[in-house]
Specification:
It contains seven helices and five strands, in the order ααββααααβββα. It has helices at residues 16-25, 27-49, 69-75, 79-82, 87-90, 99-106, 147-170; strands at residues 54-58, 64-67, 110-116, 121-131, 137-146. Strand 1 (54-58) and strand 2 (64-67) form a beta hairpin.
Amino acid sequence: MHPIGFCDLSAFDVSARDFVEALTARPTAAAEEFRKLCDMCGKLNTIIENSTDSIFVPDGEGTIIKVNKAYEELSGKDRDFLLGLNVREMEGPLISESSTLKALEARKTVTIEQKLFKTNRTTHVTTTPIFDEDGRIVMTITNNRDLMEIAALKDRLVDVENLASRYKQQI
């Protein structure tokens, strides 16, 4: 793992042997490529951290490897508590049901409604499994949306539509 944060190098088609060969053949060029890769990982981490959607990433076994600050706020749990925890340990005491477990079992994207007990929030949760070239699930990516926020937006939309209707009638 890169010290900047979450950085999965598996997305790049470079083996350790290729990297060592490139490093010894052209150390300056290899070092520059590695610097660029680390910079890209840092930027990706910044994007994930600053997303207003909560993002929750367990590995292929269900062990949490990344959460962003939006997920911490939504769940009421600190990332130090969450990282390394398996989602099987969350189902029941922390959440009503696990979309991650359902996605791992079904091997496809799953969407559920989930209750987060600590914050008493109900969320719309979508989990997508990520497969390696051999068809193994290497991680899942979960996005949570607070249904209270969605309901508030719907209410606001109704208010704006009613206001627009009244203005139309006045014209």
